[in-house]
User: What shape does this take?
Amino acid sequence: MAVRVVVGVSGASGGIYGVRLMEKLRRRPEVEIHLILTRAGEKTLFIESGKSAAELKELAHFSYPLEDIGCRLASGSFSTDGMVIAACSIHTMSAIAYGISSNLLIRAADVALKEKRKLILMVRETPLHLGHLRTMTVLAEMGAIIAPPVPAFYNQPQTVMDIVDHSVHRVLDLLGLPDPDAKRWDP
Assistant: This one.
């Protein structure tokens, strides 16, 4: 049976994290990728990388319209092994925390939480105010994993993609799908 991973891309800066995550997942024949892309995510991805929604959807095995609130990802009876929102906007994070399931991305995240499945949010915002931090606490208490893409420098990154890969490798570890190319701390 395939390892089913839901990847959401919201409108936060950093859609490259979603792209890179999907590229790495796509290399694994045992992984089945289910994509939910918001309109703001589509726009931000194009502005930042020149990549179109069609290019991102090519990396997925299945993609779903944001409005398709009745699709299989909206039901706990459709088993998945984890969900990552890369990058995750504060708007999306807040809607998930307070159960405002107004679109498929938020509903799928709600399903992950209620079914006790992994939900990993690569939240992109800085600085954070107290409301953001409290919302993150609410989500962590519900079982979500807050994994902002924070660069490390012990791996001596040479390119922006080295920095992106570090955060993506951490997410792959959280999914239980470690990347053999990940540079590990080993002083």
